[in-house]
Amino acid sequence: NAVLTAGHCVFKYKSTAEEIKVRVGEWNSKQAITKFPYQERNVANIIFYKNYERSSILNDVALLILQTPVDKNEHISTVCLPDQDQVIESRTCFISGWGETVEEEGIYLDILKKIDVPMVPAGQCQETLRKTVLSQYFVLHDSLVCAGGEAGKDACTGDGGSPLVCPDPSNPRRYILTGMVAAGIGCGGQNVPSVYVKIAKFRSWIDEQMRKLNL
Known about the structure:
The chain is mainly beta. The chain is built from three helices and eleven strands, in the order βαββββββαββββα. Belongs to the peptidase S1 family. CLIP subfamily.
């Protein structure tokens, strides 16, 4: 019934939600007929986080309320959310998307790609990013988390809003939506982590919106 995404991905549709169509279960964007077909749903409404700042990447969260529910099957399901303010410190998380490849600038993928990246503690990330073009005064906002920093392994242009999932500390076979791609300095630079929306900061807000809609 609802899809979590980054606010910057859908802000231009703030007053025209009906123009958005959500596609789930996609794998190969260029192949119309596949073994596991995708589903498409129209959007009834968009709910932005109350303190979302369009001019920045702060509080960059939105919920897409679908006109009709998605049908779960063997390749389409939901993802677990973290507890409010839960800290995830896994060394093996995963990002996925169809954005540019790190190796070939300007080349977008046809097939969904997955890359493993480590979480980076907030303090370490802030100090690292202060050594970049962000300057020594950069402060990592509490609505953001960092991951990556390994050469050649990163989200890139076109991956905005894509998921960052990490193993659940209490059940490593289950994954938690830990972040959504927000910003980065280039793609895949050594010791330059990327910045993601911190889903754990918004868990209570997400639950509140779902309760209001009886979802």
